[in-house]
UniProtKB/TrEMBL annotation:
Protein's recorded name: GDP-mannose pyrophosphorylase
Family named by the database record: Belongs to the transferase hexapeptide repeat family.
Every Nucleotidyl transferase domain range: 4-236
SUPFAM superfamilies for this protein: Nucleotide-diphospho-sugar transferases (SSF53448)
Residue intervals of the Mannose-1-phosphate guanyltransferase C-terminal domain: 253-333
Length: 360
């Protein structure tokens, strides 16, 4: 079908502490590194060759995925010495592409969970004769995003960054982070310096008269940049709301990965995933949460909409609601952490030492 570039170099600062030891695309979602879902969906759409543009913790990717043959893919890895931005990262891997000048190259951002019809985007690109085609999605409140208005034929007419006033909001269509480039267009991106494809490349192409085509696909789309979004995305994969052929088990209320131990009377709901080697004690209740490999949730704990890092321990009767517990952290018994509280990797909270809620 075509080849692809996956942009996986970001530091994932909004997702800390989950990204202190692990690059964001490798944080487990529904039991496997999130990147696995993107690779599997690309392969299902007919993509065979993918170049990963890496930077932050670049050494993590290749030991896990190797040459990609286990997924039916040919994977290559290119590491940026200094961060180059989205456009710079695309240009930096150009030498690894095999497509001819007029052939399509798919570009994906490594932090977007989407139900995009990849084949339809490529078909739109080819039938429209575009230089670049963009996946667009519609959102209720577009103020945090870049707007992409189009004419009646779908041709992009402007790029509008994060409008705030009603007059500036001329469309609900936003850039959804997946593109198809004509191969020759990639070579026009400046080399060896940071370039933003959203703020420099696309507006520049439009100003030069290039044909940029938009395709609206609003099936499922979620930016996994924050802990709240990431835990929701993982749960939606488990529940089957977000499509992926890489979920290691049947979709449903819970996913218990092989090697995990869950007490018979523990209650797991809302798309909760319990990673390999993790333990959930008697009477624990976990809803819409991700418990990473080797973590321990002790008896009677209540965990809701939270991320529990690898090797972390949640004490008996402790309550987590919308919390993020870093790798190897230990939250003692009878604590209560709510409303976005984050506990850093390796931190220790004594028994009954913290009570945090929105009314305090």
């Amino acid at each position: 079908m075509t080849e692809a570039i996956l942009l996986v170099g970001g530091k994932g600062t909004r997702l800390r502490p989950m990204t202190v030891n692990t690059p964001k695309p490798m944080v487990p979602a529904a039991g496997v590194p999130f990147l696995t879902h993107q690779l599997a969906r690309a392969r299902a759409a007919g993509v065979e060759h993918i170049v990963l543009a890496t930077s932050y913790l670049a050494e993590v990717f290749e030991p896990y995925f190797g040459d990609g043959s286990a997924l039916g893919l040919h994977l290559e890895y290119v590491t940026e010495v200094e961060p180059l931005g989205t456009g710079g990262a695309i240009r930096n891997v150009a030498s690894r592409l095999t497509s001819g000048p007029d052939e399509p190259v798919l570009i994906f951002n490594g932090d977007i969970l989407t139900g995009l019809d990849i084949r339809a985007l490529v078909d739109t690109h080819e039938t429209s004769g575009a230089d670049v085609s963009l996946h667009l999605t519609r959102v209720e409140d577009p103020r945090a995003f870049g707007l992409v208005p189009t004419d009646p034929t779908g041709r992009v007419t402007a790029f509008l960054e994060k409008p705030q006033t009603p007059e500036e909001i001329v469309t609900d269509q936003i850039n959804a982070g997946a593109y198809v480039f004509r191969r020759s267009v990639i070579d026009t991106i400046p080399a060896d310096r940071p370039v933003s494809v959203e703020r420099e490349t696309f507006p520049g192409l439009l100003a030069d008269g290039a044909h940029l085509q938009g395709m609206v696909d609003s099936t499922y789309w979620l930016d996994l940049g924050t802990p709240q979004a990431f835990v929701r995305g993982s749960a939606d994969l488990v529940l089957g709301r977000a499509p992926s052929p890489a979920v290691p088990g049947r979709c449903g209320d819970r996913l218990v990965v092989d090697g995990a131990t869950v007490a018979p009377d523990a209650k797991l709901t809302g798309g909760t995933v319990v990673g390999a080697g993790a333990t959930v004690g008697e009477g624990a209740r976990i809803d819409g949460s991700a418990v990473m490999a080797g973590a321990v949730v002790e008896p009677g704990a209540v965990v809701t909409d939270s991320l529990v890092g690898e090797g972390a321990r949640i004490g008996a009767r402790t309550v987590l609601h919308g919390a993020v517990i870093g790798d190897g952290a230990h939250v003692g018994a009878d604590n209560e952490l709510r409303d976005g509280v984050r506990v850093w990797c390796g931190a220790r909270l004594p028994d009954a030492s913290v009570r945090f809620s929105s009314d305090q």
